[in-house]
Amino acid sequence: MRILLAEDEHALGVWLSKALEQAGFRVVWVDDGRLAERSLAEHDFDAMILDLGLPGRDGHELLQRLRAQDKRLPVLILTARDSLAERVSTLNEGADDFLAKPFAIEELEARLVALVRRARGVEHPRFACGPLVFDTVTRQFTLHQEPLALSPREQAVLKTLIQRSGEPLSKQQILDRVFSDDEDVQPEAVEVLIHRLRKRLENTGVRIVTLRGLGYVLEG
């Protein structure tokens, strides 16, 4: 799950990025509203954590511009501004959830998963493709009801594919979701991981198909 974190408090941004990545999220952190807007234009995200007090372009304006473009990206507001009027106005502007500082990281993680699940119309916190199932609570894969052992990178790629099951994803889209921006990774790395996953999924009823010119799609 790829998250855009727009937070200008340096210490909080560093801590939150590390905490979310340790929990299995892929995080792009920016500390300016204009940088956040640029990231939204250049990359795909599953959700955004937005602080209202950003420099460059504040959170209210960024949210309004996002919704004016009819982008339905789930947005969780994370801010010290916790008045009733602030919450109501921000939700009316198009925010999907609101969490006041200070907060528990476990609650933030749960809210992010719930936001993405609702945005995709999924009631149960699981993604499935045939006999392959990914549980968003335990963050584990099972295949034919047995645990599937994967390396962290393999799991990240397979999770990206199963979350968009039936929809082709390009190498670049997979790179964006699996690797952080400060990692110097070439598209060939995706090919290697896809090859490994295909080996693990042989004769299971689940396969990764290459669609020429479109990318990879998970079928089961």
From TrEMBL:
GO terms for molecular function: phosphorelay response regulator activity; transcription cis-regulatory region binding. Residues 124-220 bind DNA. Residues 124-220 form the OmpR/PhoB-type domain. Keywords: DNA-binding, Phosphoprotein, Transcription, Transcription regulation, Two-component regulatory system. One of its GO terms (cellular component) is protein-DNA complex. One of its GO terms (biological process) is regulation of DNA-templated transcription. The keyword Transcription applies. The modification 4-aspartylphosphate is found at residue 51. Residues 2-116 form the Response regulatory domain. Gene3D superfamilies: 3.40.50.2300, Winged helix-like DNA-binding domain superfamily/Winged helix DNA-binding domain (1.10.10.10). It comes from the Bacteria. This is DNA-binding response regulator. It comes from Caldimonas thermodepolymerans.
